Amino acid sequence: MRALDDALNVMNEIATEIDSEDTALLDQIVDAAVGTKYSARFGAMIRTLAIQAVKTVATMNEDGEMDVDIKRYARIEKIPGGDLEDSTVLNGCMINKDVLHHKMPRTIVRPRVLLLDCALEYKKGESNTNVEITKEEAFSTVNEMQSANIAECMEGFRQAVGD
Question: Which residue range(s) make up the domain with 24?
């Protein structure tokens, strides 16, 4: 415990205030922390990304001190393909969704986002219902009932979304 107290005292003595807008000092600090075998080729890019990411998630607490909660506000998402130079810091949310149909747009400008806690794709449910159809009119009736049921569900969804 005495060693811990001594270490904390020494750290408090040598600690200096850092201005978060002093880019040269921040670059030196991050270079010391991130210095790896990739630093010759990607060092400047990694340093810039790290500083951007911290500035994006940094908040001021009640004491006027900067609070950086990376686990709560930041996430590193690895997407297969591309190069390291394609890396970027996004300020906001990223939704990575596969294109399911060739008519789906690949880019959406100013989207409205709906957060769901269920699957977005239609999933056929398990059913033990057997329908025996003997007449052509009965087949049309069953199709109409299914269509009405789906339309009712979609109307409830539209009302919930407010669209």
Answer: 2-114
